[in-house]
Design goal:
Elements (H helix, E strand, L loop, with lengths): L5 E6 L3 H14 L3 E7 L3 E4 L14 E4 H7 L3 E4 L1 E6 L4 E5 L2 E4 L2 E4 L3 E4 L6 E2 L6 H12 L5 E5 L8 H16 L5 E5 L11 H14 L1 E4 L4 E5 L2 E4 L4 E3 L2 E4 L2 E4 L27 E3 L11 H18 L12 E6 L6 E6 L6 E4 L15 H8 L22 H17 L19 E2 L5 H11 L3 E6 L2 E7 H9 L9 H4 L1 E2 L4 E2 L4 H11 L3 E6 L2 E7 L6 H8 L8
Parallel strand pairs: 1-2, 1-9, 2-5, 9-20, 11-18, 12-13, 12-18, 13-14, 24-25, 28-29
Antiparallel strand pairs: 3-4, 6-7, 7-8, 10-19, 15-16, 16-17, 21-22, 22-23, 25-26, 26-27, 29-30
Helix pairs in contact: 1-6, 8-12, 8-13
The structure holds flavin-adenine dinucleotide (FAD).
Length: 548
């Protein structure tokens, strides 16, 4: 390493590593120099491994050297073996010594067989295992198959997908066989909350998948699956997900299972400038979207230390899952440790509608793979993380931000956001109805309402959100702001330099930024506020599109 910026070494080439690298490029720019280190040259997009055996999808993989080049980082093939945290040196295999200013551990977890005698489904490498199982069923050698979520650290959703897709496959081929799902959860996909769980339960029932909850599988024997206690599930074949263990890194303190405890910014206690994110951390939910959120929190903190002028936001886990069913998929969403509200719909609840949701990674991969993303999210969109905006709105907004960027060098001093923002705000409470919010937006001729709780900003409702609600045919006197707002909106601080705010707007495709002082909402900065009055004249008189 070594270059113009602060050297950030990211150990890993998976979800957390890539999300962190993209976030750092966006937030810290050339204040940091990012290098990824991983023992495999490819990033495997694993979620579609469940669909491959049924010919319903294909596992994608990407060369890490090309991805990192594209995102302005570098890549080295190698494995992190140990760290000397006092001297800030990473030892890699084979035989490398890499000094770092900041280290992010994103080495993931390794899969361990969890149920003796069962087939283990770890991901892309096990497509042939499932294909062979389907062939056995088709040949009549197996009539009852059980899919198992084991105890311990595991992301259980793929077991549901395998069970549902097997049931759909049996149906398509008119084969009479029995599929069951065995899990320690007391209700299907319990983590997603009551509403989502009930909906998944109905999907399982309709598909003929028998659900065995509160069941702890121990061993597969010929014709049966043994459970803790006296229970058994009759099964000719058993497919279990693996249990996960954190990868061991010398010099780093890890739990018995190899996981690394971190704080809400991903920092490892007691060591300077070392962070961890993703499956390797001690956070109990091992999921790609969660890994990306942790990576983002760590990247914000690292970018702040590098002088990016941010207030780093802590990790606040939001669980988003896209359940493949073999026919209509289901989008599931809940805030972990939050109100307990959960959503489930067959239409996307986020955008782009990817299986692994990363604020930076999803749109990046969608662009690379040229995945066609419709211009408009569908009407049910309640939580939009990345939204494609109309071309007219985007071009106008981009012109404003471009003008702001051009004007920046003429600033003799750095103008802080606090000097430019407007303090005339429309604030609403999370429990206000959409009808009340719409009325106040009309009264005040405002295109967005900021949702606050005890003065703290928790969301934003734009005219676009209102249109989505109308499109979703919700009743304005029943739907609440909390359900339709964009939660955790990107915000600026009063002391943030003007050009940083312009970059934030451009990077996130937004035309306004709420401004906070500590946790309190104090103002709003619009794209037009960034432009000196003489240059903004023509632009600001044009009609604004949908509040963006
Ligand atoms: C079949 C399957 C389906 C899934 N479906 C979904 C889904 O639909 N949605 C979802 O959100 N999540 C899903 N997940 C979970 C998701 O894939 C993981 O939670 C996510 O990949 C974790 O990200 P990570 O960056 O922590 O680890 P990983 O993505 O596993 O990346 C770890 C990286 O570290 C590298 N590495 C390993 N050891 C070292 C070392 N010593 N030094 C340096 N690098 C090292 C690895 O080569 C790899 O590049 C699924 C998982 C599986 C297996």
């Amino acid at each position: 390493m070594g270059g113009k910026g602060r050297d950030v070494l990211i150990a890993g080439g998976g979800v957390a590593a890539l999300e962190a690298a993209l976030a750092l490029r966006a937030l810290a720019e050339d204040r940091v120099q990012v290098e990824l280190l991983a023992p495999e040259p490819q990033y495997w997009y694993r979620p579609l491994a469940v669909a491959e055996p049924y010919a319903l999808g294909e596992v994608l993989h990407f060369e890490l050297s090309s991805l990192t080049r594209e995102m302005g980082a570098s890549f080295s093939l190698g494995q992190l073996v140990s760290v000397d945290t006092a001297w800030q040196i990473a030892y890699t295999s084979p035989g490398g010594v890499v000094p770092y200013a900041t280290l992010l551990l994103a080495c993931g977890a390794r899969p361990i067989n969890a149920v003796r005698g069962a087939l283990t489904f770890r991901g892309p490498a096990d497509t042939p295992t499932i294909e062979a199982l389907l062939a056995e069923i088709a040949a009549g050698f197996a009539r009852r198959v059980a899919f198992v979520v084991p105890t311990g650290a595991v992301w259980g959703l793929p077991a549901y997908e395998l069970a549902l897709m097997t049931a759909a496959w049996l149906d398509r081929h008119a084969i009479d066989a029995e599929v069951s799902l065995v899990t320690p959860e007391t209700a299907p996909l319990q983590l997603f909350g009551r509403e989502a769980s009930a909906a998944v339960s109905a999907v399982l029932e309709r598909s003929g998948v028998v659900f065995h909850g509160a069941a702890y599988a121990t061993e597969a024997r010929p014709g049966e699956l043994l459970l803790v206690g006296d229970g058994i599930v009759v099964a000719d074949r058993v497919v279990a997900l693996p249990r996960l263990e954190g990868r061991r890194i010398g010099g780093i303190s890890q739990t018995f299972e190899g996981f690394i405890p971190v704080d809400q910014h991903g920092r490892i206690a007691g060591v300077e400038d070392v962070y961890a994110a993703g499956d390797i951390t001690a956070f109990p939910v091992k999921q790609g979207g969660i890994a990306a959120q942790q990576a983002e929190a760590a990247a914000e903190s690292i970018a702040t230390d590098a002088g990016a002028g941010l207030v780093p936001r802590p990790f606040r886990p939001v669980l988003r899952g896209l359940l493949l069913t073999g026919s209509e998929p289901r989008f599931l969403h809940t805030e972990l440790g939050g109100s307990g509200t959960s959503w489930v719909t067959p239409e996307p609840l986020w955008w782009p509608p990817s299986k692994i949701v990363g604020r930076y990674l999803s749109p990046f991969l969608a662009e690379i793979t040229q995945t066609p993303v419709p211009a408009e999210p569908p009407s049910h969109t309640g939580v939009v993380v990345e939204t494609a905006v109309e071309a007219s709105t985007a071009s106008r907004r981009d012109r404003l931000i471009g003008l702001a960027a051009k004007a920046a060098p003429h600033d003799s001093t750095v103008t802080p956001v606090g000097d430019l923002m407007s303090t005339e705000l429309l604030t609403v409470a999370p429990e206000d109805t959409l009808g009340e919010v719409a009325e106040r937006m009309l009264e005040t001729d405002t295109r967005s309402a900021l949702v606050t709780e005890y003065g703290k900003l928790i969301g934003i409702i734009t005219a676009r959100d209102m249109l989505h609600a109308v499109g979703g045919q919700v009743h304005p006197s029943q739907a609440r702001a909390r359900q339709w707002m964009t939660a955790e909106p990107i915000s600026a601080t009063v002391s943030m330099p003007r050009d940083t705010a312009a970059i934030l707007m451009a990077e996130h495709h937004i035309g306004q930024l709420p401004v906070v002082d500590g946790e309190q909402l104090v103002g709003i900065l619009r794209a037009r506020d960034l432009v000196p009055t003489d240059t903004s004249h023509d632009e600001t008189t044009a009609p604004i599109g949908l509040g963006l």
